[in-house]
Every structure is written in structure tokens, then in C-alpha cells.
Amino acid sequence: MTISIQGISVSRGIAIGKVHRIKDDQIDAPEYIIQKKQVTDEISRLNDAMKNAREELRAIRDRIPTSTSKNIAEFINTHLLMLEDNALTEEPIRIIKENLCNAEWALKLQCDALVNVFDEMADTYLSTRKDDIEHVVNRILRILLKQKPILDELPHEHLKNKLVVADDLTPADTVLMQHYGIAAFATEFGGSTSHTAILARNLRIPAVVGLHGAKKLIKNDDYAILDGDSGIILINPDETVLNHYKNKQKEVKKYHTSLEKLKDAPAKSIDGINITLMANIELPSDFETVRDVGAAGVGLYRTEFLYMNRKSPPSEEEHYETYIDVIKALRGLPLTIRTVDLGADKEVDGMGRRSTHMRSNPALGLRAVRLCLKEPEFFRPQLRAILRASAFGPIRIMIPMLTNLNEMQQVLHMINELKNELDNRSILYDKKIKIGGMIEVPASAICADIFAKQLDFLSIGTNDLIQYTMAIDRINDEVNYLYDPLNPAVLRLIQITINAGEKANIPVSMCGEMAGEKEHTKLLLGLGLKEFSIHPATMLEVKEIINQTNISELEELTKKALMNNNV
Does the domain formed by 36-144 have CATH 1.10.287.3510? Predict the structure, then answer.
């Protein structure tokens, strides 16, 4: 009998073959008391394990073929940087000294403390950064406990063409999968924004995560089909199902080959309407992919990574140097920098602050532009760095989570003050730099016409807009079924925003996940959206749909569907 298990699709593609189940990645850290005279030895054990962990990661990085995109190695470098961070190098040592406990337990206590901070974050991209902490800590624990890494349990040739099933996998494991010729992977845990998921997409390894309870149903050497498009894994399929997927596999391969031809083609509808396709970027290492898919530039550059895994906020010079590197990588393509979106549900050590107030609704608290205006010393260095960098390439500033006109006016006033400072110091910057706002709160969508009169562009952040419109936490399994991009209320807010931009003659883009989901492309075109900012992995698919669409015909149909709530 065929068993079907539904998970979350994180990397498209179809793989067929035998399953190899990897043993549980749950490591039981022993807890015991040590004598004072043993503290030095215990700290040495920990330091040696960290040194070995670094050597393991460097060895994995060195195995990456030179033909592979440079940004792949950056995922390994992220873990190497974490192994240099005080949160892992100093805090466990302090715990060993104060609690007189063994190295494994000290590391486990520090890991739990760090993970708890990330668990409170509603933002999926930031909350899944806890996976990286657990991956690094588990690597150190394995060394302390003299256990092998999970992919070292078998000869590598045994893993070729297998479908790997595991609790979870690290970015380093994912890199090794390509090296070993593993066909696909599925995990019980994980999310679509984890580094492992992002890396799977970059390496084009079909993958499904969040298969809760899969281990109870999947055995070693089961014959299986992993459908990365639908997010399912089929165990022991019958002949009919198997033949269907073999044919589909051929079609998918042919389809992706044909998409490559669109890289240098314009995004233009049948009736001659040009559409701008920009890329969403999260890390400096992602910028190489912008050119790989022929993006027109970067419509959303998240800067939160600069604040992570550190005790104090980044300096103005750190911001500036990072943006200069990005400008060089883009070689003339426009860059939209979103100012930092942290605080409340997205608080990290690098903010240099820690609220003492209890927050019953953290996602509704002091976040993004609210935090930046409350603590301008936290905001001004980033704005000044962006202005300075604008002298070297086309940059736009994008302000997240604007809710009212007063916030916008305060930001514009602060930017003008900083421009005056730079003028007085004869420092060059783009005097006509474009400033835009993110529409991700229903209040700002309803008043989009007011924002449009004073801003140079608007960008619709559907992830939060849907969450706040539907009054649900989109990463809460108990209510996320209500997260519906097609809800008429959401679509009307999108339409209001697009109309406001058209009336004010300013561009309106969409940078939320909805923009990159090809099943929504025609609807968004019908609503009048002319600028998409999406993950590079989905760009060519969206471009194909645009090139096959008559937008003029869609607009009238979309208007009727909205009026009748028939979407």
C-alpha cells in the first residue's frame, strides 16, 4: 500500500529511489558535577572540541567544487563565524566555572538560552536562525562525546542516489549531499527559511521538511518518491503512481532546462507591458544569484544579519563597508536596502538592548521603525552609512512597518538632518536618493494614498500584511490555516495600495512571499502590479507566466472577481 506523507516544500524537483534513514540527531548531553581542580581540564576539553569543529567545517568547505557558486561556501562560513562568537566561546566557560558542571552540560544550557530568544520571534527568517545554533552546538557535542557526524555513518558511495530521511540536517550536511550524489532529502523538522532549505534550493536538491512523525512510517530501504513541488513523500508507490512520477520527472527536467533560456529575456506580457523583476536577498553571499537569474536588481535587502551573533550593534563603518561590497557585487544594478527590522518579537543580542517589560503580544510591540525612532542612536548610523554608500551606486532606502504619517515624517526629517551633516563635512552622497515605505500593516494600506504623496515608492510586504489583516500568527501551527493570501480583505488592501501608487505616479512593488508564488502571478498582474521582488529561485518561473499573459484581458476579469468575492 502506498503511504503519502505531507510536509513543507522547500526545494522543488522530483526524486525517486531507495530511502536511507539517518539515525536520530537528538544528542543527550550528560550532566554531572566536577571538582574545582577539574575546571581547567573541562575548559580545555571544550576548547579542543571547538577547534576540531572548525577543522571539520573547513574540510567540508574545501570539498566544494570550484565550479560551484561562491555563495555556497558562505553557509559554512556562517557556522565558522558562530564558532568564534563569544556566545559560544566564552559563555559556556563561564557556566563551567560558576556551576562546576561538565562541558557538555554548559554548552547545552547556553544553547537552550540562545534558542529561547529565537523561539520568541514571529519572523520566520529570524526564528529559524536558531537551527544554525543547534547545528553548531550539536557538532561540538558530537566531538565531546566522540560521536561521528551523521553523514559519516556509512561509506559515501552507499548514499549515492538515495533519498535521505532525517530529524534535521545542517548546511554542512547539505553541501556533503551534493558531494556524495544524494538525490533528495526529507526531514521531520525545519522550515522554508532555514539555511538548510535555502542551500537546498541553491544546490537544486529536491527537499521536503516538516514531515512530523515520518520516522514511524518510513523504513530503511523503502522505495519512495519525493515530490519537492508538492511537499510530499510517497512510500512504496504502486506501478501506476511510479510511472506517473517518472514521466513527471522527465517533464520537470525539460521544463527547468527551458527556463534557463529566459534568463536574458525581458519580462514582458503578450500585450507589450514591461514588468520589473527584482530579487529578495538575505545575505551578502546571495548576490551572485541575482545575476544568475537575470534580475533587474535587488528589491529587498534585509540587513538584520548584521545584528546577529554579537553583543553590540554594528558600527556605521561596518554598515558602510557591507553596502559598498554589495554595490560592487551588483555592478550597477539598483539596490533597495530595508532599514533594520528588529525589536519586540525579533530581538537579538546585536541590538545592544534588552527590554525588561513583559510582552503578551510581541509582534504588536516596539519593532522596526518604531524601535528605530525611539532609539535614534541605533538608527542614525545605518541611515548615514546608506547615504554615504549611495555615492558609489544606485541605492534606495526602504522603511519597514510604517503605520502612520508621523512616523514617516520623523524618518524623512532624520534623513534630511543626516544629509545636512554630510554636506557640512563635504561627504558625497546621492542627493536624490529614493526613499520608500513598506506597506505591511492594514492601517498603512488603507492610507497608502497619503504615504504615496511624500514617498518615492511603496513596497507591499504580504507576509506581515496577511498576518495582521487576519489577526493570526503565521508560524503558529494551530492557526496558520487562516493565513490566506487570497482572502478578499487582503486583496482589497493590495489593490488600494497599487491604485495609490498609480495615482501618485510612483512605483509599487511586492516583496512578500506571495509575489514569488507562480499560482498568484496572474492575479497580481490583474491587480495592476508592475514590480515584483522575489526569491531568485522562483524568478524564471514567474517570468515565464508574465511572458505568456495578456494583462489587459486580466484586469477586467480581476476587477469583476474582486467585486463578487470570487477569487
Answer: no
